[in-house]
Amino acid sequence: MLNCRVVITRLASPLGCFQAARASTASAAQADTAPPKRQRPAKFEADGQSFVTDDKWNLSPAVIKLMERRLLQEQKNPLTLLKQRIVNHFHGKYRKPGGRSPLYAVCEQEPRVVSTFANFDSLLTPIDHVSRRSSDTYYVNEGHCLRAHTSAHQHKLMTQGLDNFLVVGDVYRRDEIDATHYPCFHQMEAVRLYSADELYQTRAGEELAVFEEIPDAERKPGKQERHTVDAVKALEIRLKSTLEDLSDALFGPECEKRWVDAYFPFTHPSYELEVKYEGKWLEVLGCGIMEQKLLESAGVTDKVGWAFGIGLERIAMVLYGVPDIRLFWSRDSGFLSQFEGLKPEDDVKYKPISAHPQVLFDISFWLPAGVAFDDMRADVCDVIRGAGGELIEQVKLSDEFENKKKGKNSQTYRIVYRSNEKALSKEEVNVVHKSIERELVEKFGVTMR
Ligand code: DAH
Question: CA neighbours within 13 Å on the CB side: how many for 433?
């Protein structure tokens, strides 16, 4: 998910080249036969920006709908919990000198339609790179697309003067579709820039350089032309220890992880971190030492840096045991209720919900005189569980009030019935529901309302 496009270019094998060549021939052939034009609006508005569309437009109604949802603003969504957990980790561990404020600025409101300069060119993505194809990216017009990664904001934020930041948000790709890929997913990006003093933590009088100006210096597998070996080593140690600490904080130090060499146009050297999940290695992030050319074009002339991009769904799937990426989009309260009211640091494992539909019934009654709300709650739950057994998925107290005039207390519960074996009919649920009511009246003296 993170970079399936990168896999193709990274392969030095003839197969990799062949695949890329064949694909571009195919798209040229398509252009010749002029495919039917998609229905497109004249204008497209998103996040306070308005764009005139052109023939490059390829957004589907389905992807526009996904843009409207904004999962990271839903408190109950596990991705929101995870985002906050990672932000808390960074804020807790990395502070500005003096410790009063967090080191990393958090940017969550960047617009999702970005220029192709931001998404590709600023990041030094080659002009023929597969990720630029209309079959991979959602284009609004020739010069604008839906961000395909949070890296699209690196250049602008550095230009604005930020040295250390996290960028979080939804990103869009016309990717394959399976249990770990979805046209919209979420990423957390980080950039950390250092002056030589910050990188080496030198004392006054000590000099260690981050740049070496050697005429005709060549790029090597382990380093860029202008970087000193010391700079690369120091950056690599800092980058990897930052990410290993994060991984330990999320998965525990006993979780197996490994570093794999990678290729990204905007970092060199580049790496991916994989963690072992259910016996398989799963790629959870890409990172590397930032291309100096990218920093220079953003006006940063005296610093070096590292960056990483994490796939939030990938991490959340491992952390919470969510087996399918589509579940993050579920509105089913059987899913969402499992994450409701949790703190970001709470450990929770998702329990699979039934594929059959829910049936909702409410129960409202007056409490017998002298019974406290809390005591009644515990008794009601016992009765419901006893009578409803496996058919009860959730019980929620939805209303509770005191009627001063009548001197009576009332409670209402919403019961969610759902079977693992079959779709329940209203009639059969009603039989169970009536037996719950009866037991509450007979055992606890409540009066149904
Ligand atoms: N943008 C990359 C992707 O979506 C992930 C990534 C790799 C981000 C390396 C970075 C980085 O900041 O340095 O596949």
Answer: 21
